[in-house]
Amino acid sequence: MSSTNAPVTSTIVILDFGSQYTQLIARRIREFNVFSVVLPCTAGLEKILALKPKGIVLSGGPSSVYDDAAPKADPAVLATGLPTLGICYGLQFMAHHLGGKVVAAAAREYGHAEVEIVDPAAIFHGLPETLAVWMSHADHAETLPDGFKVTARTANAVAGIADEARKMWAVQFHPEVAHTKHGMALLKNFAVDICGATQDWTPEHFIASTVAKIKEQVGPTGHAICGLSGGVDSSVAAVLVARAIGDRLTCIFVNNGVLRKDEFAKVQKTMREELHLNVVAVDASERFLSKLAGVTDPEVKRKAIGGEFIAVFDDEAAKLVAGTGVDWLVQGTLYPDVIESASVHGPSHVIKSHHNVGGLPEDMKLKLIEPLRDLFKDEVRRIGRDLQMPEEILERQPFPGPGLAVRILGEVTPERVAILQEADAICVEEIKKAGLYRRVWQSFAVLLPVKSVGVMGDQRTYAYTCAIRAVESEDGMTADWAALPYEVLRSISSRIVSEVRGINRVVYDITSKPPGTIEWE
Fold it and tell me: CATH assignment of 203-394, given 3.40.50.2300, 3.40.1790.10, 3.40.50.620, 3.40.50.300?
C-alpha cells in the first residue's frame, strides 16, 4: 500500500537493497496487520522519518558491502534510535558501517541451513534453540562492531547479531521466506513486541483509505475510465474506484484480439450483472492484430499492445464525456508486475516489461490510478471478499495483460490465435473438471513456433506443438511446476490433438520460477 494513503497507527519501513524478497518482507509484516512500506535504500532520512515509523528493516541484496558499487543507505539511518532489523545484506551493512568487518566467506551458504541460538536476544523470544532456515550469502561478518554480540551461529558463520542497548538486531538468514521455520514469529517479535507496532491495518482500513484517496485524486467532478479485463485485479480496482466516484467511472472492456475463447461476451455479462459496473465494450481486435503482424520479439509485442491499448482508451474517452473529458485511467497493476518491469524500489534487475507497467507510452494523455500497485494477488482477493465480490471472479487465475500474444511464440496471426484459444479452453476445462483449478496458481496452453510430423488416421500430419503450463505459487514471485495427475495430462493431450486442428503434439513444462518465468514471453 502506498504511504500516501490515510494515516495508520503504526508503520514499519523496509529499505530495499535489491533483494528479490524485499516486498515479501512487507507482505509478511502485513499478515499480522501491521502497515509496512518499502522505500529504496537511497531514500533520504527526512523521507523515512516523515512516515513516523515504529521501526526499520534493512533488506537483503545481491551485492557485497565492501564493493565500490554496493548499494548504500544513509549511515544516519543507523543512528535514529529506532528499532532496526538487518536481514542478510542488512546484517552486513549494519556491521560494516558501524565499525565491524565483513569479508568473503570461506564456505558460502545457499539454501537450507541449521542455526543454533547462542544468546536469547529479544528477537528470538519464544523460538526453539535450533532453527531450520533459508540462507543465501557469500560474505559473513568476521568482526563485530563495538557493543554487538553474536546471538546465533551456523556451523560456518555468524547467523545473528545484536546490540540491544542501541535497539539493533540482525540475522544472516531470510525469515521472510516460507523455507525458514518460525520466520513469521521472528518478524512478529520485531514489529509487534520490539517496535510496539499496533496490529490495526486491515482490509477494511485499506478499502476506506483507498476510497478516500481516490476521491481526493479525482475530485468532485472528475471522470475516470478503467481498463477492464474481467480478471481479479482490474475487477477489484474497478469496484474500489466505483465506490469512490460512482457513475463517474466508465469501465472499458477492449477485445484486443488475443483474449481467451468466448471471453469478450462472458466478461461483459459478468461485469454488468454481477458487479453492476458501467461497461462499454470495444471490439478492436483487427486494430491490435494489425499492429502485431510480422512482430516476433516479445518486448515489441508487449509495447505494441500497450501502446495500442492506450490509443484505444484515448479514443473512447473522447467519446464518453463530451465537453468534460476524462482525466484518469484505472489499472489493476500489482506489485509482481512492477518488480519485474523496472527497478522501482532498489537496484533490482529488469526481467520483462508488463502491459500494465512497461508498455505504457510516455506521451499518454491520461493520468494513472493504480489502487492495487503495492499488493500481492492473495491480498487483492482478501480485499475483494471484503467488498463482497463473487468468488467466481476472485478465484479466477491470473491472465496477462497482453493476453494470448505472450503465449504464442513467434508471430501472432488470427489463425494462430484461434488455434491457441481452442487448446487453452480444453486445458482449463480439464483442470476444472478434475477439481484442480483453485489448487494451481495458473494453468494454460502455449503455442510454440515448432512443427513436427505426426500420424492421424493413417495420414501424415505436419502441425504445431502445444505446451501445457501449470504452476503452484503463493504470490507469483516464485512458482513450482504443478505435478498434475497423469490422467489429467492424458485427457488434456488427447482432447487437444483430437479436437484442435493445427496441433499434433503436446508437451508439459516442468520449469519452476526461477529460473524460468511463469509466462513464456
Answer: 3.40.50.620
